Amino acid sequence: MAAMVTADIELPSGGRVLSIQSHTVHGYVGNKAAVFPLQLLGFDVDPINSVQFSNHTGYATVKGQVLDGEQLWTLIEGLEANDLHHYTHLVTGYIGSVSFLEMVLRVVEKLRYANPDLIYVCDPVMGDDGEFYVTPDLVPVYCDKVVAAASMLTPNKFEAEHLTHRCIETEADALEACCDLHDTGPSKVVITSLDIDDKIMIIGSHVQSKGMAPRQFKITVPKLDSCFTGTGDLMTALLLGWSYKYPDNLEKAAELAVSSVQAVLIQTLKIEEKAGLSQDGGVKALELCLIQSHDEIRYPKVTFFAESL
To answer: Cα–Cα distance between 275 and 245 in angstroms, integer?
Structure first.
């Protein structure tokens, strides 16, 4: 039976998130996929756009601007000058250059000086399906520096392989990769996509106390006969949001996040079908219908459950 998350256990307000991710004028990836869901879950969100593009890169033409590291630091200095740099969370997504990523580490240090309890949720966006979205020189920076600074890490299979230098083909491989990442720094790791036997598996791992073995689990969802953009960005945002409500229960947070994402995808497919759109109609059919899915985000029905491993 699906369990309804009702209003009396909504997320408490008061969390403040600084979200450093990409921005598109049209469509829902990066900050466009993260800010609205986090606001629905009760957070104040301050977005910094690492890039500002007309649309995501799946379209034939992309126009826009790229923020550099010094411009990022200028924004942080402005926040600090007005005593506005007190955040409960920092979340980072797509970052296109080593210099910008190095500056993000300085941002983490400054924000943790203002709030030592800052939770840093890192989606190490590097690529997927065997291909890099970014230049490979970002990989050692993530491996050697960023992972150690993160509280929660949300790589996909491709990214987890490059962060751990191990091939991930099985559930056991993914669990070992999570342990490798825990040894580097983050107490919470969620590998957001592992394609096994024509199903998608989400692997979660949580070290609740230093020196203890992690609590590990999996959630299995069906593979939909469609492609979407922004799902990883949405998943990371929802994991942040529900982990704030359930800080000691990553399984529960992941169940809510995964069920919500799947509901958004189904809603998107229904809206596309009603509008007469399809995969054959082009990339425009692949945009998430986030606004129309506000109830699925704020009040998710738990339809996918964690299995302890």
So the answer is: 36
Single out the catalytic residue among 8, 68, 128, 233.
233
Environment class of 102 (CB within 10 Å of its CB; exposed 0-12, middle 13-18, buried 19+):
middle
> Active-site residue 233, yes or no?
yes
Chain segment 22-79, per-residue pLDDT in tens? 999 999 999 999 999 999 999 999 999 999 999 988 889 999 999 999 999 999 999 9
Q: CB of 52 within 8 A of CB of 65?
A: yes
Among all chains, which residue has been given the structure tokens 């957070």? 43
101 DSSP 8-state letter: H
Overall average pLDDT of the 201-221 stretch? 95
Say how far apart CA 92 and CA 89 lie, in whole Å: 10
Task: Tell me the C-alpha distance between 182 and 264, whole Å.
Answer: 30
267 vs 203: CA distance, rounded Å: 24
**Residue 227 pLDDT:** 86
DSSP labels for 155-202? --HHHHHHHHT----SHHHHHHHHHHHHHHS-SEEEEEEEEETTEEEE
| Token representation of residue 96 | 């296109």
Phi, psi of 34 (to 5 degrees): -110, -40
CA 13 vs. chain centroid, Å, equals 20
Residues 257, 238 contacting (CB under 8 angstroms) = yes
Each residue's pLDDT tens digit, 99-117: 999 999 999 999 999 999 9
152 and 122 Cβ atoms separated by less than 8 Å: yes
CA-to-CA distance for 73 and 270, rounded, in angstroms? Answer: 42
| pLDDT exceeds cutoff 50 at 89 | yes
